[in-house]
Amino acid sequence: MSLLELRKLNKHFGGLHVTNGVNLTLEPGEIHCLIGPNGAGKSTLFRLILGEHHPGSGDILFAGENITALKSFARIHRGLSVKFQVPGVFKGLSVRQNLEIALQSRHRGAELDAEIGRLLAFLGLEAEQAQTAGNLSHGQKQWLEIGMAISLKPRLLLLDEPTAGMSPEETHMTGEMVQRLNADGMTVLAIEHDMAFVRQVARRVTVLHLGQVFAQGSIDEIVADERVAAIYLGQAHA
Amino acid sequence: MNSFLSLFRRLEGPQTVGRGPAFWGAFAIVLLAALAYPLFSDGYTVGNTVYFFVWVFIALSLCLIWGYGGSLSFGQTAFFGIAGYGYGILTINFGSAYGFTLLALVLAVMIAALFAVLLGYFMFFGRIAGVFLGIVTLAVTLMLERFMAQTAGPEWHVGAARLNGFNGMSAMPPLTIPWPGEPIVLFADVGLYYLVLGLLVLVYLGLRILMNSSFGNVIVAIRENPERAEMLGYDVRKYQLITFVIGAALAGLSGVLYTVWGQYITPSSMGMTAAALPLIWVAVGGRSDLTSTVIGTLIVLAAFQALTIYGSQYALVFMGVLLVLTVLIAPNGLVLGVMNWLGRFASRFLQRAG
Ligand SMILES: Nc1ncnc2c1ncn2[C@@H]1O[C@H](COP(=O)(O)OP(=O)(O)OP(=O)(O)O)[C@@H](O)[C@H]1O
Ligand SMILES: [Mg+2]
Predict the structure, then answer these.
(1) What is its main location (chain B) (predicted)?
(2) Residue B339 covered by a domain
(3) In a mutagenesis test of the B interface, which of A72, A95, A160 is the best target, namely the one with the most B β-carbons within 10 Å?
C-alpha cells in the first residue's frame, strides 16, 4: 500500500487554478522531491495535504485512509509533520521551549528533559537553547523548525524548501540528516530549488508546473528533459 | 504524591516572572502584611481595599486570554455582568439561608462560564480571530448593556428579582456562611476581605501552575503561531475555547464579588468605559505576566481613585495618557519592564558577589 496518494486534486483561488488535477503517489520509505518554478503551486499542494486548504475536488489518502475531510491536527496525529517555507517557530519563546512544546505530548518529566537535550545536540543548538527563537539566524530557525517537525516522529515528513538561506555545507548537512531520518524509516517529501540537494537525496522527482504534474522520474531523467529546462528558462526570461 | 510535588514545581517557569527564594520571600512578606493589615486599619479602608481586590480577578482573566493566549477580548465585562446579575437573581429569590449565597456564587460563575462556552464556540470554531474577536466580544458586551438598561418596567423580573433597568439591581444579600447559632455575614469589610484575599492567592497560584504546565505551553504557542501549534498536533480551537471559558469564569468571579461587595449591580458595569478600563490596567501592568498584572492593576486602581477626588473626567484622561505612555515606553507593560530590570540587576549582583 502506498503511504500517500493524491487523486485528481483541484484547488482554485478565485479564478486562479492553482492545483489542477494533481495525481501523486508516495511509497513508504522513499525520499521524493517536488520541484517547479515559482508559483507552480508546490506550497499550496502541501497545504492541501495538511488540511490548511481544502480541495475543490479530489481525494487525499494517507496509509489507505481517506483524510480529505480531517482537521489539520488530526492529520498530524495520523503521522504527518511539516516544516514550512517561511520558518514557523515560536518567535517570542526560547529555543528550549520551542522544542518542549513539540515534545511534551509524548514525553514527560525527566524523560522530556533528556529528549530535549538529545534534540538540541542533534540540531547543534545547545549553546542557543536559552535564546529567544526570534533572534536566531535564518538558517538556525530552519533547523529549529525541522527539529520540531521530526520530533513528532512522523511517518511522512513534508519539507518546504528546507535549505533556503543555507550555505552549501549546511545544505549538504541537511541532506545527510534527511538521509539518516529516511534510513530510520521516515518517508520524506521535500520541495526544493537547490539541485545539489535534490541530487543528494531524491530517488524520484516530480516537476509541478502551473498546478499540474509536468514530469516525473529520476533526477537524471528530469535534468535531461528539455521540456523541463524550457519551463525554468521561460521563467528566467519572464 | 509525586504529581502533587510536580504541581509545586510548576509555580515557577518560563511563563511567569519571579523565581527562587528572593521572590517567594517577598511573596511571603507581602502575604503576611496583607493578612495583618486589617488589624491596623478601619472598616471603611479595608472595604475599599476589597473593592480593589475584586477587580484583580477580571484583570487576571484578561491577562490569561489576551496576554498569554493572544486573543484580545472586550467581552470580559459581559461575563462580569452576567455573573453579577446571576448572583442577584438567585439570592433575591432563594435568600441566604443554609449557605445558599455561597452556592449562588458558584452557580453565577458557572452561568458566565456556560455563556462563554456558547459565545466561544461560535467565535473560535467560526474562525473569528484577531480584530474581529475584539469587535464581536465588544458588540456582545454593549448589547447586554443596552438590553439591561431598558428593563426598567415592572414586567422585567425574574421571580422576585426586578431587573430595574438603568438603575440596576440592588439589595441582594451579602455572602453568608452558615454557622451553628449565628450565621456569619461577610459584610464589605474585614470578613469579606479575608475571603477575597484567600480567593486571590488561590487564583494567582493556580494560574501560575496552569501557565507553567504543558497546557500553558500550548496557550503561548498559539499566541506566537497558531498554525505551527496546529501542525504540532494541537487542536488549537479547543485550547482557545478552554482558555476563554476559564477567563470568563474569572471575570464572572469578579462580577459576583463586586455585587456582593456593594450589594448592587448596574448595566453600566458592562458599558464602554467598564470594558476599556481592565484593558488599560492589564496593558500598563504587563499583560503577559500574572504578577505584573496584579501589581499593575492595584497601582493603577489606587491612582485612579486618588485622582477621582479631583473629578472623574481627569482620572479618565489620566488613564488614556498612561496607556499611550505605556505603548511608547514599555509596550509589554511598565510593571513588567521594572520587574525584568530588577531581575537582571539582581542576577548581575549575584554574579559579582559569587
Ligand atoms: N491563499 C492564497 N490566496 C490566493 N492566491 C494564493 C494563495 N496562496 C497561494 N496563492 C497563489 O497560488 C499560486 C501558487 O502559490 P504557491 O505558494 O503554491 O507556489 P509555490 O510553487 O510554492 O511557489 P514558490 O516556489 O515561490 O514558493 C501563486 O500564484 C500564489 O500567488
Ligand atoms: Mg512555496
Answers:
(1) membrane
(2) no
(3) A72
